[in-house]
Each structure stands twice: as structure tokens, then as C-alpha cells.
Amino acid sequence: MITVFGAAVWFQGLQMRRIANLSALVATPLFTLALVAIMVHSGRADLAPYAVVGATVIAVWQMAINESGDIIDADRGQGTLEALISTPAPLSLVVLGRTTTITVISLLSLVESVVVARLTFGVVVDVHHVGLFAATLALTAVAMAMTASALAGVFVLSRSARTFQNALSYPFYLLSGAVVPAPLLPEWLQPITKVIFLSWSTDLIRDCLRPGAVPNAPARLAVVAGLGLAAMVVGVWVLRRILQRVRTTGAVSFA
């Protein structure tokens, strides 16, 4: 298992040398400029660090979803998806290794956002709870990799992963609290945000930027980890059922 995971990480690392795979990182400075400018020019420069967090969350989500879908589409287009499915290596573990690599690289967007906000608007992002901040980022990366891997089954079954990628982009920018904090959304939408781990992560990261104590931090971290694990468990089960179907019908490339 460790060998399979390591091989998947190494292979995805080679793939990430192409600029097309790093498009989310290219767009991050633009998202940062837009979100921070809104805060500064509306007279709420004190909220500008939260805009930096929002731009980072957008980049991490976009990169994970786009690349996890492209993993399946690229293998299908190159005619290697059938061979990958027929090998003894679990497809879910291979996808997890590749999405983990993508997620770790996507965290560079935080550095980009902080630098752009500082150079363009003079915004300084102060982290008052460094340990909790690091733990939140680590658990968010793990949960993101698990969630992206869980979607692999849907992408295998679809003729084109791009359809699902587009549908999962902008709605989640809002539901994750990246653009607007979840408590400010309409009341009927707020329960939906509670089952999205990114909304918990985003709130925790914002709290780490405040000088006061962070309420219920361990429990909130546990929720992030739990939602990510739940997505992975459901995703592995769904992927196994889908693979049984496509192996039976022989319709991997034309699912």
C-alpha cells in the first residue's frame, strides 16, 4: 500500500511540472486582488486578511477538483484507464496519492495571497494562534485530498469530468464561506454549509487571525477530519461498486 501511494505521489509530481496543471496558482493573485480590494475600498481594511483566506480556499478547492477530474479524463484519453483499473493496485489509493500531491502543492496559494496582499495594499496577515493554524491547514489538506478522491468514482462513470468540475466550483466557493462567511448566508443555506468541511476550516482559519481565544477548537478540528474521512469512506464504497459495473460491461472509456 505504501509503495502504491508513494508511486502515485511521484507520478503526480512529474505531471505538475506543466503550467496547465498549476492554473489555480496562476489565478490566485487575481482572486486576492479582487477580494482584498473589495474590503479595502469599502472601508473595512480590518477584514482584508479574511479575504486572503478566501482566495486561498478558492485555490485549494479549484485545484483539487480540477486535477482530480483531469486524472481520470487524461488516463481515459490516453487509453491507460483500462490498464490502471485492471491492475491489483486499488484505484482509490492511486487517486488518493495523486490528489494528496495536488493538495499539498495548492497550499502554496496561501503564500501567494499573503505576498500579493502585502505588496499591493499593505495588508499584513497576523496569525495569533500558530499551532492551531498549522493543524487546521494540515487537516484541511487531508480532508481535501480525501474528498477529491471520493469524487473519482463519479468521474470514472462520467463521459467527461469537466461537467462535474464546473458544477462543483462556484457553488462551493459560497458554501465553503470563502467569499462570504457562512453565518451571513440565507438561513435556508446555512445547514448545507455544516456538512461541507471547508466551511469549518475557513471559520477556524479566520479565528486564528484574531487575538482572542478560539472557541471549541478541538471539536471543530475533529469535525473537519470526520467530514473528510466520511467522504473518503463513501467514495471508496461507491468507487468499488462503479468499478464492478464497468469491469462487467467493459464500458470504461464509454461509461
UniProtKB/TrEMBL annotation:
InterPro entries: ABC2_TM, ABC2_TM_bact-type, ABC_2_transport, Nod_factor_ABC_transporter
Pfam families the UniProt entry points to: ABC2_membrane (PF01061)
Localization per Swiss-Prot or TrEMBL: Cell membrane; Membrane
GO MF, one example: ABC-type transporter activity
Bilayer topology annotation: Multi-pass membrane protein
Domain ABC transmembrane type-2: 15-242
Top-level taxonomic group: Bacteria
A cellular component annotation (GO) from this entry: ATP-binding cassette (ABC) transporter complex
PROSITE patterns, sorted: ABC_TM2
Similarity comment: family membership: Belongs to the ABC-2 integral membrane protein family.
Protein name (record): Transport permease protein
Species: Saccharothrix ecbatanensis
Taxonomy of the source species: Bacteria, Bacillati, Actinomycetota, Actinomycetes, Pseudonocardiales
